[in-house]
Amino acid sequence: MTEDLKEYDKLIKEKGISDVNKMLEESKILTKNIPNLKERHEKVVAARGNVIEASVKIETALNELITKTGGENLVIDSEKKELHLITGAKKENELGSLPSFKKRMNVFKEILKKKNDEFTFTEYIQSEEWKKKQIDFVKHFKKCELCGETEQLSAHHISYANFGHESVSDVKVLCWQCQLEQKQNPIKLPNSHEPPLFADLEKFVALRDIFAHVPISWFAKELEFDDNPQYKHFFKLDSKWKNVRVAFEEFMGIQKNILAVIPEYVKQVELERKMMSSILLGTELKNVSEDDKRDNSTN
What we know:
Distance between the termini: 73 Å
Number of helices: 9
Helix content: 55-70%
Strand order of the largest sheet: 1-2
Oligomer: single chain
């Protein structure tokens, strides 16, 4: 052990590697001529702390959404003999498989896209346009594809590739009983618009990484992050983020937007619950939406 330490000391001297004490001394020499260093340092510490605290709030909200919303619409629990309209995308004990903040954010993006597609689809199948198409499809096929029944028929998508412009190859006709026994394919609409928040979520993660990993360039006129080659990739989305104030203000603005969107998303999930229940009972979507608006206006 002693011989190993001697070799280590020898290597340090040969390579000119600074030990911890020497690094501290060198740091004091380098920073002693920086004006207002203490004040600047306190601002950076405060900014980093606020960013991490804001990230924790968002991560807590994401955990709630991932475990309680965004899963399958109609799930039958055979053991409890219960029907659930919404279940979580992941169970609480599965959150450990999402070690990074970015992975949680990606799950959130998947949930938002899924909900957006499902909402668009539900509006469409309740529209007069689809009702007219459905009549034509039923006339074309004449009977249930599975059992041959000729009563209580309706058309159902087997492909979403031509969503909104369906042909007979995109649908199948089923009777009411066979429809209940079918498990619906996941609704993934092609060329559907991404929710506006998507771009902000990517920025949010990138800004969080900057505050968590990039050191400060103390000799810059303004408070700036270090942009030497090993850190340049952090600023690929926006070079203006080198400025600490600009990066901080944009991060906090996005956090505010995310926290504003989450309650709206939860309302959409609740409305979807009502829609699914009401559709099963035969109520029109527009009536559900109007009832929901009245409920919200009285709260």
